[in-house]
From TrEMBL:
Its cofactor is pyridoxal 5'-phosphate. GO terms for molecular function: O-acetylhomoserine aminocarboxypropyltransferase activity. This is O-acetylhomoserine aminocarboxypropyltransferase. Keywords: Pyridoxal phosphate, Transferase. Its EC number is 2.5.1.49. It comes from the Bacteria. InterPro entries: Cys/Met-Metab_PyrdxlP-dep_enz (IPR000277), Cys_met_metab_PP (IPR054542), OAc-hSer/O-AcSer_sulfhydrylase (IPR006235), PyrdxlP-dep_Trfase (IPR015424), PyrdxlP-dep_Trfase_major (IPR015421), PyrdxlP-dep_Trfase_small (IPR015422).
Amino acid sequence: MSSSQLGFNTLAVHAGAAPDPTTGARTTPIYQTASFVFNDVEHAASLFGLQAAGNIYTRLTNPTNAVLEERVAALEGGTAALSVASGHAAQFLAFHSLLQPGDEFIASRKLYGGSINQFGNSFKSFGWKVVWADSDAPESFEKAITPKTKAIFVESIANPGGVITDLKAISEIAQRHKLPFIVDNTLATPYLVRPFEHGADIIVHSATKFLGGHGNSLGGIIVDGGTFQWTGDSRYPQLSQPKAEYNGLVFAETFGNVAFALACRALGLRDLGPALSPFNAFQILTGIETLPLRMQRHSDNALATAEFLAKHPKIEWVSYPGLEGDKYHALAKQYCPKGAGAVFTIGLKGGYDAGVKLVSNLKLFSHLANIGDTRSLIIHPASTTHKQLSPEQLREAGAGPEVVRLSIGIEDVADLIADLDQALNS
Ligand SMILES: *Cc1c(COP(=O)(O)O)cnc(C)c1O
């Protein structure tokens, strides 16, 4: 059966995998090897010249990682994928295939804090300039476009949670200006939102979060939608111009609708090097088998917790798009009808001190800087990740002194609510 006939739950368990041809092992083995033996000299030459598919060295490809790549491509409905060492590595390699020194891209201001740093600080040393726009006002992306703009970047469900991006509205702007539209689908996963169905061209993931889902392995994925026409487009020389080291090969012409994923691998990963360990690929692959079950439970638990907190006398506000009356509720119904994910923020009436007290008094929730674990997690940004900022800067970052971010796990929701209640009242 071809992948396109199978349902999401089946793909989550089977896509890309088959019993090991040598040993019969039913789960995908961890191919813990740096390199692979060539059949003969001609075989080696064809692999190095990209004329044949096969394994050379684990920085480029690895059979365990290949199963993970095929599985995430199938779940997202893309043509190909590339697994890398972290979500940040995925973003880095995606932009490396698109941008030249002096180029610009437009990104939503509502992003994971680490992405704001990566785009705004480190990318500067490559001559790549980020221009910020407001995902609540899609027209702000169109206004920011200049002749140097080469891509648009947003998160589907955006950090620090509680924001749903109008993907269709922004993708129409990208299409009008022939710009690739990149969506970070980390918080949603393809179970909740399928960005390619709403006009995305490229998807990136931190697989560290819900895809792996158990808080035990870092990883990142780039998924190629196969939709963008790179051929002959001189704005994207990595894809449209001959590559001398591959005998004048032009990625867009030779590899068609998988050219972007291949360029990220054979140019970006080859030269920049953030390869995913096969062990981590195995852990993430195992996590993905239960992705549909976990994401539904995460979302159901988050909604019940948000409803409880919205009525709690110690809580000023709850920002969760699953709640009726929330600013993003209509967009949530449009883009993620099965649930609005696990991550959201609350505001405490008692301000900074109440935030410190809450994270200190919780017993089941872990106080740490991560999301997308089976376990429930909490963080008070003002006393941790954002401690160096002034009260004004805190507010601009959406991390005022009263703000607490939760990532709701898959425990019994009654236990989570009881833990929050005792910590709020103590
Ligand atoms: C964590 C995260 C990243 C970065 O991923 P790492 O695996 O930590 O490098 C990028 N985007 C989002 C939305 C994230 O939550």
